[in-house]
Structures are given as C-alpha cells and as structure tokens.
C-alpha cells in the first residue's frame, strides 16, 4: 500500500525510527554498573529487535515517492542529531571509564564493544544516509561519523565504487557465492581502501589535478581521524586510545557484516566486452522486517536504495519476491548467521540458486560469476 504524503509527515510515523536513541541510556547503564550489564547493548541491538521482528512481522507499505523534503523533517532530524549524540557517548565514556576505578579492564572493553555496536550499527548506517544527500552539512556529518570509527574512506568507496559496480567483479564488497564471511572480511579491508583511493585519484586526474591537491577528500578524512585519535588520547591516555581503537574495530566489523549480506551471491548479467546490465532491484537482498527497519532506518530496503540511491530513507520502497530476492530474517539475525559460514551457506545458498533460476534461467555456467572471472566493467 502507498502511504500518502499527508500521512508520512506525521510525527507519530517518524517516531519508531528514533528507537536508536534508547541505546544511549543502555550504554550509560553498562558503563555505570559493569559486570553482566555490559552485555545489554549488543543484546538490545541484536536480540530485542530480532524478537520484535518476530512479533511485528513484515511491513509491505511504502511512502509516496514524491513526498517533499519539507514533509520529512522528523525523519531527517534523527540523522542530523546523531553525530553530536554519538560524539558525547563515545568520548564521554572514554573519560568516565579511564578516570574511574569501578570497572576492570575486561569490563571496560566489554562496554566499548557495546559502543562499537552503536557506532557501527547506527553511526555508520546514519553516515550512509547522510553521504548520499546534496546539502554539504549532511555530508560533513557523514564524514564526522566515519572519522569516529577511522573508516572515512568508506564514503569514497561507497559512492565512487560500490554504487557504480555493485554485483560485478569491480566491486570488492559484493560477496561472492560460497565465500564465507571470514574470507570476505580481510579481503574487503584491503581491497576497499585500494579501490577508494584509486577512484579519488582517477577523479582528480580527469580534472587535471595531482593527488595532493586540496580537492582530494582524503585531506579531510585524515584531519578528522587524527583529531578523533588525539582527543581519545587526551581524554584517556593510552588506555583511552586503546578503547577508542577497539570500538572502531567493532564498528567496522559490523559494517562489513552488513555489506556481506546485502549482495551475497548476486550478480549482474555480463553482456560481453566488459559491459553489464543496469542495476535492478533484483541485485540486492530485500528485507521488509518492521522493527529492524526502524533501527536501521530502512537500510534493509536495499533493493530500492541501489535502484534509486538519492531517495531519502523514509521514501524507500519495498519489493515482493517477483522483483527482488528476500532475506528470511532481518539484518540482526542474518549477521549473526553470517559469522557461522556453514549455517550461512545452508540458509542462503539455496536462495541464491533459486534467484538464478528465477531471473537468469538461460545462464548455465555460473563459474565465471562465482569466482569473479568475468571481465571488469568498462569504465
């Protein structure tokens, strides 16, 4: 069902997307009481929303795509305020736990595991929404959020590589069929940095500019990341820096888990001579689970995001199985499954094979697609 703009604009319809703020007092509780309380952040992010998904089911309704930005104020606001909120949580907690004596070393790292879940599951996801927008202020907020997890190059990689070459051999973060996460993760950590840097250098070269020109966004990336590292050290010394680096690592792990499941095994048809079909909803896994889409501001409507990347999250459409492949569960459960490759393959490989029969019944040799052996796209 299409929801008219007059309904979309209502505050009550935007409020479920503000549930991410509940993780802030959760982090405060874990940092205050320690012990088993340090587990409540990941349990809240993964467990409670998976349970809500089971209870609330799917949401097949979509907002009118012509709804103007002015009617999306309450949706946009949560993404605009998140950077200062996360900044306060991250650096405030660094100061509190490194200047107090109520937590042991293991408890401190457990607290910052929870913060990594927050900065990865929520922070990087919100930065993803913001980096796609035209206003400079929103793109700056995206850069600030990414600098807090030392993954600033993600913006260049995502916009200049992933969206152009998704589901082709030129996209590092399209997980190949039968590729387990533990092979995927180290591969993308290396390849994404290389492809992001190469994409920015190529853009500068087309403008006749050298790599060190101030137009290179890496100067901004490096400056923001250096500032975050310096602040962590100033507030908490060596221990504060270690905790900061740990949460960043957890956040990146969360991001790449999501990247892994979003396109696993899906490929665009090679048309010959390095040319590929256009991106369609069928080239991303779709998930219409209501609660986890609240937490992840509709990221699970990923088929529509790749089909129409400039759509703000409240306007993303969902698709049925005739147009896009469907995940059996929301991202929280699917990312946990991805950490156990035999379980993941048992769940997902039959779905990939069914997708191939449904959308590409004429392709009989999938080996070049499975192994990334098709030619890279003509750029």
UniProtKB/TrEMBL annotation:
Q: Which family does it belong to?
A: Belongs to the fatty acid desaturase type 1 family. AlkB subfamily.
Q: Spell out the Pfam families in the cross-references.
A: FA_desaturase
Quote the protein name from its UniProt record.
Alkane 1-monooxygenase
Q: Which UniProt keywords apply?
A: Cell inner membrane, Cell membrane, Iron, Membrane, Metal-binding, Monooxygenase, Oxidoreductase, Transmembrane, Transmembrane helix
**Transmembrane feature ranges:** 17-37, 43-61, 73-97, 109-128, 221-246
A cellular-component GO term for this protein: plasma membrane
Q: Which GO terms describe its molecular function?
A: metal ion binding; monooxygenase activity
According to the entry, every stretch annotated as the Fatty acid desaturase domain falls at: 111-334
Per the record, membrane topology reads: Multi-pass membrane protein
Output the GO biological process annotations, alphabetical, semicolon-separated: lipid metabolic process
InterPro entries given for it?
Answer: AlkB/XylM, FA_desaturase_dom
Q: Does the keyword Transmembrane apply?
A: yes
From which source organism is this entry? Paragemmobacter aquarius
Q: Where in the cell is it found?
A: Cell inner membrane
Q: Which domain of life is it from?
A: Bacteria
């Amino acid at each position: 069902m299409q929801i008219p703009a007059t309904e979309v604009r209502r505050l009550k319809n935007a409020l479920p997307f503000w549930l991410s703020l509940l993780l802030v007092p959760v982090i405060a509780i874990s940092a205050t009481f320690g012990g088993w309380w340090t587990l409540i952040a990941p349990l809240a992010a993964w467990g409670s929303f998976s349970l809500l998904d089971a209870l609330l089911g799917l949401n097949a309704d979509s907002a009118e795509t012509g709804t103007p930005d002015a009617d999306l104020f309450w949706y946009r606001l949560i993404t605009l305020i998140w950077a200062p909120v996360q900044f306060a949580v991250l650096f405030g907690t660094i100061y509190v736990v490194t200047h107090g004596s109520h937590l042991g070393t293991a408890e401190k790292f457990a607290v910052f595991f929870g913060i990594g879940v927050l900065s990865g599951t929520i922070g990087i996801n919100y930065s993803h929404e913001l980096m796609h927008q035209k206003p400079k202020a929103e793109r700056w907020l995206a850069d600030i959020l990414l600098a807090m997890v030392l993954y600033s190059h993600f913006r260049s990689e995502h916009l200049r590589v992933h969206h152009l070459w998704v589901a082709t051999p030129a996209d590092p973060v399209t997980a190949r069929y039968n590729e387990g996460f533990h092979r995927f993760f180290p591969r993308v950590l290396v390849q994404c940095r290389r492809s992001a840097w190469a994409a920015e250098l190529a853009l500068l070269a087309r403008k006749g500019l050298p790599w060190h020109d101030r137009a290179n966004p890496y100067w901004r990336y490096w400056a923001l990341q250096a500032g975050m590292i310096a602040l962590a050290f100033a507030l908490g010394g060596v221990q504060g820096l270690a905790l900061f680096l740990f949460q960043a690592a957890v956040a990146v792990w969360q991001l790449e888990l999501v990247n892994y499941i979003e396109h696993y095994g899906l490929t665009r048809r090679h048309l010959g001579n390095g040319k590929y079909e256009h991106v369609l909803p069928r080239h991303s896994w779709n998930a219409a689970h209501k609660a986890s889409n609240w937490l992840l501001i509709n990221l699970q409507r990923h088929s529509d995001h790749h089909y129409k990347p400039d759509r703000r999250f409240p306007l993303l459409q969902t698709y049925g199985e005739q147009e896009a492949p469907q995940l059996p569960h929301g991202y929280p459960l699917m990312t946990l499954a991805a950490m156990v490759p035999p379980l993941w393959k048992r769940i997902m490989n039959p779905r990939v094979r069914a997708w191939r029969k449904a959308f590409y019944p004429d392709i009989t040799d999938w080996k070049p697609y499975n192994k990334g052996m098709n030619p890279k796209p003509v750029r």
